[in-house]
Amino acid sequence: MASKDAEALEKMKRLEERIKAPSIWGRLPSGIRFEDLQDKRYDDAIRLLKKHYLPEEITYRSVKISEDKEGTDEFVHNVRIWMKDKMSIAAVKEGTDKLVGVLIMRIQEKSAFSRTFSRVKITHNPIYSTVMTFYNEIEKPVSVYDSLNVKRYFKVYIIALKHRYRHRGIAKEMLKAAMSLSANASVAALAGIFTTARSQTIAEELGFIKLNEIHYIRYLIDREIVFWDTGLGNYGAAIMAHRIPTVDEPLELQPQHSSRFNVASMHVVEEEDEMQ
Known about the structure:
two-stranded antiparallel ribbon; N-acetyltransferase activity; Acyl_CoA_acyltransferase; alpha+beta; about 35% helix; eight-stranded mixed beta sheet; globular; Aminopeptidase
C-alpha cells in the first residue's frame, strides 16, 4: 500500500511539473530555445535589459537613460507590468538554462483602447518621458485595429539579446516564435516600434508593413535633434504591423491571462541574420 501511495505521489509531482513547465515556441540548431518568460526569470530579464538593452538601443542610448537611476527605475517598473501578463518570450541557452534574450509583449484590445485612461501613458521622469513621447508620436496617427481589421493584437515592446548572441539570426527567430504564440492564442496580429534599419528589414521579411515612420533628424525639441546617436544607416523609427493570414479572430473575445495554449509541434529552424 505504501509503495502504491508513493507511486501515486510521484505521478502527481510529475504532472505538476508538466503543468508548470513553460510552453516551447521554437528551437535553433545552435542550442537556443524560445519559451514562455516565467516569473522565476523576471529578475534575470531586468538585469539583461539594464546591461544589454538600455545602454545600446538607439532611443534610450541617445538620452543616456542608463546613467539616470530614476529614468531606469521607471522603465523597469513598466517592464515588470508588461511581463506580468505572461505573454512574453525568453530565449534560453540549452544545457546551461541561462537567459540570453527576451521579447516583451502583451495583448492590446480595441475595447480597452477606447477608454480614455488606457490611452494616457503617465510618466514622471523627463528622460523616460522623452522616449515615450516620441513613441506616442509615431503611434498616434495610425490605428492598428483599423489598418489590419482586428479587435486585438500583440504589441511587441522589446526585443533584446545579450551582446554575444547578436548577429546570429536569433532575434528574427524570436519574433517568429512570437508569431507562433500569437497564432496559438487566436490573436491575429502583432505590431511594434522598430528603431533600426536592420530590425525593420527583418520585420518586413516576416510580413510586417510600415504604418508610420518618423525620421530621427526631423524629431526636434526646442529646435534640437533628440536622438543623435543613431548609428550608420538608421534613419528613423517605425511602427510596423503584421496580420497573420491563417488566424481567424473568435467571435467573442475572451481575456487571455496565460501563454499556455494548444501548441503545435515546433520544428528546428535555420538561423538567419537578426535585428540589432
